[in-house]
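SEVERITY: medium
COMPONENT: batch folding queue
REPORTER: lab tech (J.R.)

DESCRIPTION
The queue accepted two submissions in a row. Attaching both inputs and their returned structure tokens so the on-call engineer can compare them side by side.

ATTACHMENT 1
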Amino acid sequence: MRLNRLDIGSIRKKEVIKPKAAKVLREVLHADLILVARNPKNPEPFAWVRKQEYVFSPKPLMSFATICLTAILVLQSVSLSANLIGSEQRILGMAVSAYEDLALAQDDLKGQDFTDAQLGFEKAQLQLDEIAGQLNQFNPLSLLSSKVRSAQALTSAALNIADAGGKLSSGMQILSQIKVSSRGVETPDFNAELLQNRKQLSEVYNLTAEALESLEKAADIPPEFAENVQTAKTETKKLQLLVKQLISLEDLYLSLFGSGSKDYLLIFQNLDEARANGGFIGSYGVLKVDGGQIEKLNIRSVYDFDGSLTLNLAAPGAMQPDIVKWGLRDANWFADFPTSARKMMYLFEKGSQTVDGVISLTPIVFEDILRMTGPVAMPQYGVILTDQNFQEVVQRKTSIEFDRKLNEPKKFLDDLAPVLLNKLIDLDPGSWLEMLNLLQRNLARRQIIIYPSEFDGRILSTDKDFLSIINSNVSGTKTDLEIEQEAMLESNLSADGAIINTFTLTRSNPTNETNKAFVRVLVPKNSTLLSIAGNDDLPIRKSQASGFITDPDLAALDNGVEADKTQFAFWLNLPPNSAKTVKLTYTLPFRAGISYSFLFQKQPAAKPIKFSSEFNASGFTPVWLSSGPRLFEGKIEFHSESLTDDFWSVVLEKQ
């Protein structure tokens, strides 16, 4: 039985009565109780998007109000002494009252009325404190009864959750204070407030950890309430991760804008022309901030910078001989963004100034912001920008319709930036929760990449199976948003634990232009390529040119190694309205042993790939399988078409 928002319309001895309209009776019997549950209007207590990608919402607290009731209901099955039975009515009465307070607090939290929510959670805490005190009278019985211990553990969990709810409600009030404009954050003492809020969220995280510990101790639960406790565990874990991500976002802000003057290189990647970290860098900017205040924000054409760069570095081999000199526009060549970012900072220092970090943005970010702010008028350009026309208008205004005398094609973006920032000051306070969700989602999908930070787009480390498909368009045609990809990885495990992988990639081009892609497949380091078929037989040149300096990081790529991974590189040219399939077979450098795991890391900001994985472990029996894959006809199958990374694992036993 799953308890959500309960209509405690009937509490009767061993009988079920249909619930009446939202009436709560305080009638309490000391025998077995049956509560009739009403289906809530919003049955899902939490908005789940994808693995480790959450909607920032107060809904994770929605199912926890039932923990206090479940704790007391466990006691109903104990009946160990007259003293316990005599206290039962008082305890259950307080539990019902605590439930009501928690339910109201949850409604306030959901409606983003954080002040009333905080008061509601604090009121529920008082009731739960009294329940805990009543249960302490039965400590001697807890030595004999696992049911009493379970009831005490559940009450402790409910108390921690109520405390967490109150502190979270208090912490979320900072959202109503946020004011942002083209001058930066205009909220008085915002950084100090955020530091205090960060401490409070840490307390919430610790309370969820304590609640989980208590829930694990509740081992003796009547079968009819087992689902409640399992739901509480699941939701508490989700809440804990959600709070952790809120802390990460606050840490990110404080590291970027917390104190002191800092300069950041902004790069704007065009997804129509794929590159390893997103897309071609057509525009760049310099953002100077001091304690959250914007002191300078300029956006320019990348060709302005590259035209003045005197450093003669040889371009990546795949670009030669068409492009010999390496510039900022092509510096995002490495699949590992920290490596690309350090190269950008190096080039920028040689041609302009030093910067403290790099922030990468794609058009998707601006579309999401426009979806929140509504249309933005640019009367001097005769356009109104929306989330639907953003890419088309920007492409036209920066490539075709610009003042040829001024010759500043990116001036449109430079003029747009302050106008868009000033729209943020008009956001309703309740919209900042959605803005946090927007930010988190784009960080998870690597539409935003920030170096240095934990969201730096690095190639992930693992000592097990790994795959990443990196496409770079070097022909200049803006076709990549139309390209469709399907990939299949078939892994065969031999009796001695050796693994042979067969990887198949199909790319389809429905456009009327040729798409010329340089494809890199990253796999575990020291994997051995056995065969490749279906690729275009074109030379892959070294990253060197006469009279130019050879970059050491590019030289390492030429040797087939990046970010501690082996890379298999090849050309795949797609004429208009065509499709091609490439097949690679290779051996992994390790043996499976008793376990196997697989990590598929997606290319930053790329479209979803229709991906399938098949693990054939004949001679072995899976004894544990993570969520995601399924066992079918002796093989483990996994399918995905997500915008985030995929991971699955299995524990094996030899037959």
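ATTACHMENT 2
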Amino acid sequence: MAFLRKDRTIVFESVAEFLNHYDSHIAKHGLYVQSHLNWPMRKMADFLLTIEGREENAKFKAEVVFCGGGNVGLEMDRAQDNKMRVESLVNQLRTAPVLKDDGVVIYSSLKKFREDYASGISSGGLHLESSTKWPLNERRTFTLRIAGFAKELTFRAQAVFSEGGLTSLRLDNDPEARGALERFVTEAHAALPLKPVETTEAEPSQEPNRASPNEIEVFPECRGTVFPLRKAKDLAQFTFIEFDPGKHHDSDLFSLIATISQLEEPVALTLTADKHEHRIQFNEQGRVVAYSGHQADINLLKQLAKNRYIDEAQIDEVISAVNPSNPASELVVEKKIATAKQVAISLGDLLVTVLADLRNSKEISFVLVGSATEAEEGTAFVELLVPWMENALKALPPSEIKPLLASLWKRYPKLTTDPTWKLSQMELGDEEYDFAKSLSGARTLPQALSDFAKKDRDRLMRLAIILKTVGTVVVLNNPGDQEPEDNKPILRKPTKTKKTLKQLLPKGQKKQDKSKIVLELEVEIKKLEEASMFDHLGVHWSVHPSMFEKAMQELHLRYGKDSDLARDSQEAAHLCHKRIDFARRALHYLKSPYKRMEYRKSVVPFAHLKHTSTMLASKAEQASLGKQFAQSIAIMEVAVELNPTPEMKMKLDTLRKRARH
């Protein structure tokens, strides 16, 4: 049965469980879930429906009509728009490819198959809905069929994951298998028009347009060299490149990657230095979504372990299965060892180290080519900018830094009104953010630094240099001067026009000193300062630890850099960053079983722990009677944590034995 969390999020264990519940209850406006909380009756509220391990969700209104014995009954609002949101999720899930018990893979449309080929199948991975648990690493023959397409493909593959109604296959990668797959894709491509031409009465026989792969425009190949950044003058100002495929380009590494991040086209940058190649993939939003290079897989796994997203022991487990078709970045997500968000964060941290090492190379050449990718989770250049330049400045001797500092020491630094890279998007600590916000153009740099502790001033001086270099801060000769018109770097013209916030706001609307969102966030942050770490993470103290990462993902959706709350203003973005910091620190602490158990004892009375443990043990037994062993074991694991008596541990061992048999 699904579980209702404190934040009104309903989590189903699998797609199959949700679809079965939809057919039996939700379609009739009823919803029955588990919850350890007491919910107010007959009160209409918003709920979020999600499935474990998937991004799809649906928001709907409902009221509680039953609450007791750990179960909650909801009656959904019968309004048409409420019903349509849930139905949209159902239709979306039912169009997913299905692996049947006889080994036949069925796609509902050519379009869906083409999308999956671009995002995973071309790299050897196939992710399917399946009610059968397939034996892992056993090679066998499968058949792929697409509705509306006469041909089918027979292929060899092995299951590398099969849990919770999902199965992932790793396709054979020998030349014969790849050739058969590519021929099948070419035929499927020819059968799918990219854009049908609208017919009129005057032209009834007009055929749909069919575009061949050669007609798809990609970014032209560009080549050049990178001169190493080993001197302070190379950090004085970014310059932007106007790429021309017919010319050779020379650039520093900062300017090269800064330019690529503004292209708004999916491209791949290959840097060759000291006989090693480093390939960085950018998506259409200019975010870094993949990296391959010398020991890239092992270094990424080490970074994940350093960030405490995985254990050191899991590195060997993953690295043994890594191959060109299954890089570590995909395997850890596929095996549910880490989330895509955690991989993106660790990839950004790894790139800071890689780019810092490249500064010591004597000669670097680069090739930039168009390279389509469907990946969305990645790291923006602005997120790498401060730690990357911080490393570069720290590597320089004081004699090199003094000229950079002299250009703004006795002048008046001021945040620009419309910078290329905004302060709210940068990776800054509280002191750094407060320092940057204090740069109003009314005080000199020494005066601004005097408000902060001496131990922090060297770091803040480097931050001032960085912000000036990238144009986020302008330096005035006198307080009250106007910003120079040529302050900001000239960017390459974007390939797509995007409306700015000013264009979207109605005319005459003015920004308030503190928006309603900022005020609400300030109240929330103040409450969190006195709340428990479970509240910081947004979970009840009795939930299973497997829910922690899901809670963190949802907090990123609500308070992350790309969320509506963070986009309200710089103040809101900073408060959202603090909210995420609360949760991140709580996650790192509560992931340790020993620390979690000790901390829970300090914030929850023992009587509550014992009572809840007894109640959970009863629920686990009920779930096991229905042969829902995975669910019953998870519930019992929490019961043992809350009250680790020999009796409780024996019940858990019994459940595990019953599950094996």
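NOTES FROM REPORTER
Residues 193-217, 490-512 have pLDDT under 50 and may be disordered.
No errors were logged for either attachment.
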